[in-house]
Prior knowledge:
By secondary structure, the protein is mainly β. It is 0% helix and 62% strand. The chain has strands at residues 2-7, 10-13, 18-26, 28-39, 46-51, 57-59, 67-72, 77-82, 91-101, 106-110, 114-119.
Amino acid sequence: QVQLVESGGGLVQAGGSLRLSCAASGSIRSFNNMDWYRQAPGKQRELVASITSGGSTNYADSVKGRFAISRDNAKNTVYLQMSSLKPEDTAVYYCNAQGLTYGLHPFNSWGQGTQVTVSS
């Protein structure tokens, strides 16, 4: 079983920055993609950013140029650096990771979410 724990959320003024972290633990042989999603009240969960095992990244149009995703494979951790935050970035942010356990079972795990609130 693979567990993901997010941290780093909070309240910030518009224009400010936050850095989210997501640490994975468990019987992890390898990761494929690691992703950040967000869900605002009354809206569907949306993909914000993703990073492959090789380090290729992809971003939602709404965050391009403002957010940066990175990963530390040695620490089984993925980060989301968020800058120039806007009130519309307010949401619960979730980490998602896919990969293989040492038992060669595929996993697709979610964190519990961390709240990001941007005030105007």
